[in-house]
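Q: My collaborator sent me two sequences in one message, no labels, and asked for predicted structures for both. Can we handle them in order? The first one she listed is below.
A: Yes, handling them in the order given. First sequence, followed by its structure tokens:
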Amino acid sequence: MNVTELSGVPEWLPDHLRDEGVEELYPPQAEAVEAGATAGESLVASVPTASGKTLIAELAMTASVARGGTALYIVPLRALAGEKRTEFEAFEQYGLTVGVSTGNYDSDGEWLATCDIIVATSEKVDSLVRNGAPWLDDLSCVVADEVHLVDDGNRGPTLEVTLAKLRQRNPGLQVVALSATIGNPEILAEWLDAELVDSTWRPIDLKKGVHYGQAVHLEDGNQRELQVRDGEKATEAIVRDTLDDGGSTLVFVNSRRNAEAAARRLAGTVENELTNEERTQLASVAAEIRDVSDTETSEDLASAVERGGAFHHAGLASEHRELVEGAFRDRLLKVVSATPTLAAGVNTPSRRVVVRDWRRYSGEAGGMAPLSVLEVHQMCGRAGRPGLDPYGEALLLAKSHDELDELFDRYIWTEPEAVRSKLAAEPALRTHLLATVASGFASSREGLLEFLDQTLYATQTTEGGRLERVTDDMLDYLEVNDFLDRDGDDLTATSLGHTVSRLYLDPMSAAEIVDGLQAAESRPSALGLFHLVSRTPDMYELYLRSGDREEYTMLANERETELLGMKPSEFEARWEDWLSALKTARLLEDWASELDESEITDRYSVGPGDLRGKVDTAEWLLSAAERLAGELGLEWAPAVREARTRVANGIRTELIDLAGVRGVGRKRARRLYEAGIETRTDLRNADKAVVLGALRGRRKTAENVLDNVGRTDPSMDDVEADGSVAVVGEGENDQSNLGEF
């Protein structure tokens, strides 16, 4: 189908597509148009990675906006939200407005009402529904990207319930669900009352196979020699062979440690093949990586990048990941070793994909377990860049002939698994039942069950009565904890229940926080509050390692009076979780005591991304705790607010006032304080020479800080830094803003 044949879309769109090099639609895209994508019809597009799913969404969204509606694009990850925002910005030249919203779960996102296209994570959309965002009534088209993730036990139920609520709220809503190739796309189409586009077409050929011995064995029966030299591993040989052909390689491994080790080794294969220009550009990227943080992880990543390789995993800061992804897309980086986080939708294709590790540790299995077929196919789908590569090739690695046969049977010749709803799991249902009642989608047990009947779970379950039984158990829990009132069949959210729902808390987290705050007999300490929020289901606790049990048992005994709530016995099953929460709380206390990021990441064996994730979560949970304390009339709200501010900025108590000035942060606040500037008022009236000295002689920084604090004459012209104030050399890594993530 030629783009000039498109109907229902804005008149500018065909010319725009031609300017972008799109003259003809791919077959799945044409099939989607024929199924009604531009005419407001719902559809499920189950097609391979890199086969043009985003354009299907763009056709539906722009057609919807042209009809006077508003379009919502739901993504599973924040990183993907930013990527899609950048793509959709191209439409702003034609008068469309695009907005992104991924955080601040207790707002209604009023500003989004002015946008034509909105990009948000499923969690954010769920929170908007809970907070009664009125502009949701204007939605005419909703795109659910990576909809197969309804199968994910953590995030799937949120996406499932959110789509069900949006469809109930807007009966004529067009839903466009984009999915990787899965085993049961027809079930998703049935659930969403949608047409199905089920295709295996790709714009460039994808060859899948297994490397074994000295050869690549492909799924079509062909073999090709790919020798592994003496002292070389198979992955290194594949990277070398890909480089010889002018391509890049993406290597998937099963752990962070393996990703980092593989990057160090594979960069050695790459570095001698780099041009002088590439070395210069990579050195610049490495410098940006070092500026993100001064941790060992940051230095290791920068060192690998300088040699043309990199690693990518969830322990990296988001800035780290963005720099790696950008350099890989620009073909500066020749090889990236990654955990499966990079397979989840972020646009990072390469000539070759190597699935080095097809097993990973599983707590449920109690050991190593095979990856799913869907996950491996998602990884393989990253191979081949349209317009850049003549083909894509995805290889698994076998160490024996038996394993060669097993990999073909398990992954190469097998269709992906069917996706299944995870909504009936208790944690998910507990959260979404309260939100469904609090946000007015059901006001009785019968109404609640009728709503649940609109979910994917109800569409595909054959286990009669299970959802009803779990629902009754969860309603009992919510009533006992004063989140719901029941009057016969009628259900009403209490004032506390409404607050918990709007705050986007798991009700069990809220119950833990409420019990802890009510048990406090005196002003809670920062550690006590950090420990309280760290033992909620909404915080991922640090693992207890060898030797940790004794260390943190001693700490629990030493600081027992600070810990809120009843301490369990060392012989109770939950003692390990209590100690894990204490370890997490100690990390937060170290951060709020201004310990260097590098020392914290070393002490707790975490990456900078882990630290930032813990701090973000703690800030959110403490903000919720402050609201709950106010809701219940407890006197500890000021103590909670102080702990929240300290962890948000990574500061001790005396810096709270200074660190609140935009542009200051933890390190600059400490320098100013040591120079005798202890408050905002002090800063507003301080000698400019002292301010300039404390801020390392950086004139622009000093002017911005003084302007932000309300100084009427912030200019640093003709001001010399006070020589009595230590000015750190320009080469020092400045972490002044790490507390303002």
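Q: And the one she listed second?
A: Here it is, processed independently of the first:
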Amino acid sequence: MGTVGALVAAATTVAAAPAAAAAPAAAATAVPSVTSLSATSGPLSGGGRITVVGSRFARGATVTFGGSAGRSVTYVSASRLTVTAPPHAAGTVDVRVRTAKGTSAVRAADRFRYVAAPSITSVAPVAGLPGGGATVVVRGVNFTSTTAVAFGSTRAAARYVSATQLSATAPAHEVGVVDVVASNAYGRSAATAADRFTYRDAPQPVSDLRLADVGTTTATLRWTPSATADVTSVIVRRATGAVPPATVGDGTAVATVPAGTNTVLDSGLTRASTYSYAAFAAVPGPLFARAATLTATTVTNSRPDVPTQVGVSPGAGSNAAGCTVDAPCGIPSTAGSPVSLVANASDPDGDADRVTVRFRLWDATGATPDYLLDADDPDGVAAPVSGAGGTAFVRVAASRLVEGHLYGLDATASDGRLASVTTAARYFRLDTTSPTNVAVTSDDTGFQVGRTAHFHLSATDPTPATGAASGVDHFAYSFSSSSALDSDGGTHVTAVDGSADITATPTTWGPSSLYVVAVDAAGNHSDVRTYQFYVQG
């Protein structure tokens, strides 16, 4: 019997052991469990009701978000609670339910992400027209596919590009500065200097866009600057053909120049081709004025050559390069006869029969030039030269010139489309009066064969009441005959202050003569002065 009782006791003990072990397992199954959340993200400020779905929930249960207590927990059923998310720093947290039976285990299904509100770091462009329509790139952080954009309080059409970029169309708005605001479920961006957008009127365009010149491979554009005070630059664009660029992004860039500049040279073009241009005035923003446009066609011909041999006729070296304002050449003229302005013209294309020469003529006696013929005077245009080149001339009535005055002239060749560079100025002084008072003297007491004889020559050039004389330039002399001095012949000696010294060695004895003519810088000749002397053997 004892043995049996022991066995029973042992059996009872053995039978009771499983029941005792089952108690902790039953308690574990009463711990709440979270299987899903109605929202898996929210703003840093919290708020918003979230439904927590799971099992073994009980009345009085609490909910934490990463250790922070949820607010206004409501028991709906053993499988459902509602709670308001508390504030929390950015990041992912676990949402856990706690009852008298314990706290739900951490699992992927309970994760909740706190997301910062959008923040804008830049907008571009930063200005637009009151009518709206500008495409504005908004850059920042924490953008989502549901992020909305407003300009001030006006909603804008926006497109999500990435978490750091949005594209918005500026809505219409009155003139002024607004903050661009990005907003989504996590909040709205704070206003900063980086998000400001200015609504302003467009700048006034440049005006009178025109071609200052066009060549075979170049075009020079000129315009009148914009009247808007804060224009910073002018952007010139080019297109091939007759349709000019519509925006500053179209066509080919020619130049961007400061607002005060009004001329641009475009080079590298193709001969006989058509191009169109657009010039946009720009203000900070950037914001561009309406385009000023024009069309140009390059030419096939080359520029005429720069005129040569520019001067006056009749003249004494008046077409020489040395006829400067400080050393003018003279011009003799019979009273009442015209003076001709002359120049040689040519064209590298070989069509010089179409080339004309435009002369300018001015009285340079006073402090400022007094133009007799200026750049716009048709009387200053010579008839076309013939063949591959030739001399062009314009006659000027002698009555328009004043004795003793200093005159300047220059010349430009043109084929009707292209013009040459203007020549350097040439200067002459009108002098129609011949030198006088020609005198010949000698300090020798006698003249002998084989011995050097010395002669002193002098003359004066009368100064007109209306200006200066050209001055005695040289003497021409001969010991043979006066006719040897015709056409400026004979031997020449330069005059200094109206005088000169010469020498000669007689080879025969008896009476001899020295014939002398004084010539002024204008080429006027004095009467012949004869000096007679006797040579002893």
